[in-house]
């Protein structure tokens, strides 16, 4: 039995981007538009709650900040791969987002004079990371959600796992899903869809990301014939706590923390003499890995992971408690280290996907030929507009979740109204697309050839492979090995079925579906990285250490062919204001 729902707008994902989109629809059109907000976890458990350090916005032009400066920092940070028109739109919308959150009750940290405080962040030439201690994402989620509950005519679907995006004749028709509690197959028909499913950090083993961040949205897009943009650009955050990978926010360096090697040296002076620890993340991560490769790191005897130290001791207990309470708690609980008295062991951890679903600057989802898939938007980390290009600046992601949610939400609502006025009937996905997806999922429960023990092995092997060959430093040999392993795992995965054959809370089945998704995403990342024979932003090729604007100032698009292979094509970068120059910090 297939349960059918109809909503004007269906939003997949209830992180910052999804919540902001829902709120935009409600605060502008109220009850007029019905919204379904779907999340595979309880709504407030979306990864966004873990965001720590801050959200970038220009708040103090009288003190020297400006839109042009924020845009320039972002574009230089992106190693000139960002689309500059998208960046301008982003920086201009941001200040109002901070003020709206303020009005809705977000307790931003304050300056002594009571005005909103901002802290320095990597690659920003003005301290413009707006924060609420080191729990910024938590407060942002809480504020958006508490605002949203004041509105009617929207429903939340928690623990509902979306499996496919239905597009027919270039028009969005709805999504299919599994209600995890009952195991029922659901179809959400909708005029407009907003995909806000977040990143794909879990394709790596050493990552700051929650277990749920498995790239489902990216993989669903691929299966629906939508290309992914710039997937080879994965951000490695310089300071993942060893051995777990839990994030130690850049705010720790923003507040004045130092990085030191085995010789007690502040090594960043050799890599970024001006910005030091507050150079952009790609620069700092490469510096740490160079120290480690040249023998100036430490080794954790249990995990075998090599690391450097993040020293906060000189900040003093009072400042650490006030500005970085969460970091102190994490270090004590997860590494047995109190940063007040001991430095913290850190190494680069997979942290962010610069790439994602191919969209224009209004977050409209595009096909390989650049045509809009009518009725479909993507917002937040899953989308690539592209603001972050080859390397995202810290504090720009939560910011983009807000602006993209706002733009996508507003546009989706307007589209619904327009199509209704034009008398277009409610969308009806064809029975064959529904039946096909139902079969893809539920046939697995009938098959017994191979148990799912292997799915956990496949997932582990994939994540180790990505850590080993598609990490901070890459080369042709390693990337080819990675690709070969990913393709083998993908083949092996075709014969893996869940051992649990029940319908109720079948997490075994969800793991199978997620792992299939992770493999497709990893395939895009590794393939894009192999073909890009240059170094730009977070993508560093030891065998091609220079940026090559002549051949590579372009976005990679990866898409899935009918015979289940990834193909690659390219699309130009929009440059409106600044020509690429050498990037120094
Ligand atoms: C530890 C940590 C700290 C960070 N700190 C900062 C910071 O200080 N500043 C900053 O700018 N950025 C920060 N980032 C990055 C930023 O937080 C994320 O990029 C951003 O929150 C992503 O938000 P999102 O709404 O796109 O997705 P998420 O918050 O990841 O939400 C994704 C949603 O999609 C749902 N979903 C996914 N797949 C499915 C499916 N198949 N079916 C149904 N639902 C699905 C999930 O349930 C969830 O609701 C941090 C990231 C991490 C991991």
UniProtKB/TrEMBL annotation:
GO CC terms in record: plasma membrane
Annotated ranges, domain Fumarate reductase/succinate dehydrogenase flavoprotein-like C-terminal: 459-585
Subcellular location: Cell membrane
Entry keyword Membrane: yes
Membrane topology designation: Peripheral membrane protein
Active-site annotation: 281
Name of the protein this chain belongs to: Fumarate reductase flavoprotein subunit
Organism from which the protein derives: Hyperthermus butylicus (strain DSM 5456 / JCM 9403 / PLM1-5)
Lineage: Archaea, Thermoproteota, Thermoprotei, Desulfurococcales, Pyrodictiaceae
């Amino acid at each position: 039995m297939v349960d059918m729902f109809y909503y004007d707008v269906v939003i997949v994902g209830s992180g910052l981007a999804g919540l902001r989109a829902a709120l935009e629809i409600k605060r502008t059109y109220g009850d007029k538009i019905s919204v379904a907000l779907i999340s595979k976890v309880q709504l407030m458990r979306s990864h966004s709650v873990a965001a720590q350090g801050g959200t970038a916005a220009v708040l103090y032009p009288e003190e020297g900040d400006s839109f042009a400066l924020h845009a320039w920092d972002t574009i230089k940070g992106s190693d000139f791969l960002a689309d500059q028109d998208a960046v301008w739109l982003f920086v201009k919308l941001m200040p109002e987002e901070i003020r709206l959150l303020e009005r809705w009750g977000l307790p931003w940290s304050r300056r002594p004079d009571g005005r909103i405080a901002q802290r320095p962040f990597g690659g920003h030439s003005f301290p413009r990371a707006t924060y609420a201690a080191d729990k910024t994402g938590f407060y942002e989620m809480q504020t958006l959600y508490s605002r949203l509950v004041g509105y009617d005519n929207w429903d939340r679907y928690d623990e509902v796992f979306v499996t496919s995006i239905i597009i027919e004749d270039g028009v969005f028709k709805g999504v299919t899903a599994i209600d995890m509690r009952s195991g029922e197959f659901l179809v959400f028909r909708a005029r407009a869809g907003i995909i806000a499913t977040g990143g794909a950090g879990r394709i790596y083993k050493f990552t700051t990301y929650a277990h749920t961040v498995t790239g489902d949205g990216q993989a669903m897009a691929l299966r629906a014939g939508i290309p992914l943009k710039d997937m080879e650009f994965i951000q490695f955050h310089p300071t993942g706590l060893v051995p777990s990978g839990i994030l130690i926010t850049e705010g720790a360096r923003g507040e004045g923390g130092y990085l030191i090697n085995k010789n007690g040296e502040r090594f960043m002076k050799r890599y970024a003499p001006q910005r030091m620890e507050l150079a952009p993340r790609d620069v700092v991560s490469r510096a740490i890995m160079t120290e480690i490769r040249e023998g100036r790191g430490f080794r954790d005897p249990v995990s075998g992971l090599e690391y450097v130290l993040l020293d906060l001791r000189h900040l003093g207990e009072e400042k650490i408690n006030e500005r970085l309470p969460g970091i102190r708690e994490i270090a004590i609980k997860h590494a047995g280290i109190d940063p007040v008295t001991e430095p913290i062991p850190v190494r680069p951890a997979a942290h962010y996907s610069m790439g994602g679903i191919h969209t224009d600057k209004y977050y409209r989802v595009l096909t390989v030929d650049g045509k809009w898939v009518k009725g479909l938007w993507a917002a937040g980390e899953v989308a690539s507009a592209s603001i972050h290009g080859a390397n995202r600046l810290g504090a720009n992601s939560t910011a983009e979740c807000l602006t993209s949610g706002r733009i996508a939400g507003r546009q989706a609502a307007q589209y619904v109204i327009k199509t209704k006025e034009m008398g277009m009937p409610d969308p009806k996905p064809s029975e064959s697309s529904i039946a096909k997806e139902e079969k893809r999922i539920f046939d697995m429960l009938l098959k017994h050839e191979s148990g799912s023990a292997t799915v956990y092995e496949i997932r582990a092997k994939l994540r180790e492979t990505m850590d080993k060959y598609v990490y901070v430093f890459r080369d042709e040999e390693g990337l080819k090995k990675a690709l070969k392993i990913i393709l083998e795992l993908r083949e092996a995965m075709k014969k893996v079925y869940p051992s649990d054959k029940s319908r109720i809370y079948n997490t075994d089945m969800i793991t199978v579906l997620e792992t299939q998704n992770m493999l497709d995403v990893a395939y895009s990342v590794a393939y894009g990285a192999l073909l890009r024979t240059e170094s730009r932003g977070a993508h560093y090729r030891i065998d091609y250490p220079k940026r090559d604007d002549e051949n590579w100032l372009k976005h990679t698009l990866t898409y899935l062919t009918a015979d289940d292979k990834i193909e690659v094509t390219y699309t130009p970068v929009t440059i409106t204001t600044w020509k690429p120059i050498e990037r120094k910090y």
